[in-house]
Amino acid sequence: MIPPRPLGEVSVEDDAAIRDYLETHFYNYEEFATPPVDFDFKVKIDTIAGNNADKTPLIDQVSSETLTVSSSAFGLTEVENDVPHTLYYLIAREGVGENPTAVDSVYLRYSGFRLDGTVFDSNIGAPIWFDLPGTLTQSNPGTIRGFKEGLPKFKAGGETIVNEDGTFDITDFGSGIIFMPSGLAYFRGTQPGAAYAPLIFEIELLISETADHDRDGVPTKLEDLDGNGNLLNENTDNDGFPNYLDNDDDGDEIATRDEIEIDAEGNVTLTDTDGDGLPDYLDPDS
After folding, report:
1. How far apart are the first and last CA of the chain?
2. E-assigned strands of 115-240?
3. What's the pLDDT at 176?
4. Which of 14, 31, 96, 227 has the greatest number of CB atoms lying within 10 Å of its CB?
5. Nearest to 192 by CA among 184, 150, 156
6. How far apart are CA 144 and CA 133, in angstroms?
7. Taking Cα atoms as reference points, which of 81, 129, 87 lies closest to residue 104?
């Protein structure tokens, strides 16, 4: 059996491959700047060559963010902590809706492919719902990190138009591209058809919904107490269930929903009856 490759080594190689791709490819930015009649606002990528030799390369148009990944995320025996990985993204069209967080639910069209153009996953025709963090189950494991970190860069769409045939369209949705190294995707996993594969996702973000995974009244984004994006390290009552999947967060046998206040408009107030700075739903003494 071939041992896993070092995370840091692969990260450097992936970034070089992604940057080479960005330097040699462009997208249909001219159509987005001056949309033709009936333009569908779909991103189309092509190689800078021949008649396209004068196009502006993606490398001059993308934004980027550096994230750190540790070997423990992939169960590697060689310990590497906080290895930098660069996520690149391009907002081709700004949506009119809200930006999702990394722990929300999103409704979108997308296509995922490798740098060689091989498509490994696609729902570009029919939109699909994604629960970004998932629920720790085999049927809902959540999305890869690069996806959940990249989608909050985009805004969802606006008005929902119901068609005569019962289908519906979302106006003014956000669209663009996410480029991620394998350390923010499947790393040595072969889900994309190859191990250690940097990935590209073309996305059209239609709807973003604030998630409440355990339906306890506290939005999942507020269950991330330290704000580090890792929901699994928040387990107030140490019962084996992270707070975002626990409807009695402090284990006092009073449901979390009964220890907060929700007004008629759905706004949540985290009450602190004894004034000790700890909300009642996280305080077993309140």
Report:
1. 55
2. 119-122, 128-131, 160-162, 168-170, 174-180, 199-209
3. 98
4. 14
5. 184
6. 9
7. 129
Question: Is-contact 185 199, C-beta < 8 A?
Answer: yes
Q: Where are the beta strands (DSSP E) in the chain?
A: 25-27, 45-47, 63-69, 83-93, 105-114, 119-122, 128-131, 160-162, 168-170, 174-180, 199-209, 261-262, 268-269
What is the C-alpha to C-alpha distance for residues 161 and 253, in angstroms, rounded to an integer? 45
User: Are the C-beta atoms of 10 and 196 separated by less than 8 Å?
Assistant: yes
Tens digits of residue pLDDT in 155-207: 999 988 888 887 788 999 999 999 999 999 999 999 999 999 999 999 999 99
Q: How far is CA 276 from CA 259, 261, 270, 279, in A?
A: 15, 18, 13, 8
**What is residue 195's predicted lDDT score, i.e. its pLDDT?**
94
In this prediction, residue 135 carries a pLDDT of 87
Q: pTM score, two decimals?
A: 0.91
In angstroms, the CA 106 to CA 155 distance is 11
**Which two three-digit tokens encode residue 277?**
């700075």
Nearest-angstrom CA–CA distance, 162 and 264: 28
- Residue 61, classed as helix, strand or coil, is coil
Q: Which residues pair with 113 in a beta bridge?
A: 119, 200
Distance CA 134, CA 105 (A): 9
CB-based contact 100:208 (threshold 8 Å)? yes
For each of the domains in the chain, give its residue range(s) and CATH number, in order of start. 7-209 (3.10.50.40), 212-286 (no CATH)
Q: Of all residues in the chain, what percent are helix, strand and coil, respectively (each to 5)?
A: 20, 25, 55
* Cα 39 to chain centroid, rounded: 26
What CA–CA distance (Å, rounded) separates 169 from 99?
A: 19
What does the DSSP 8-state code read for residue 111? E
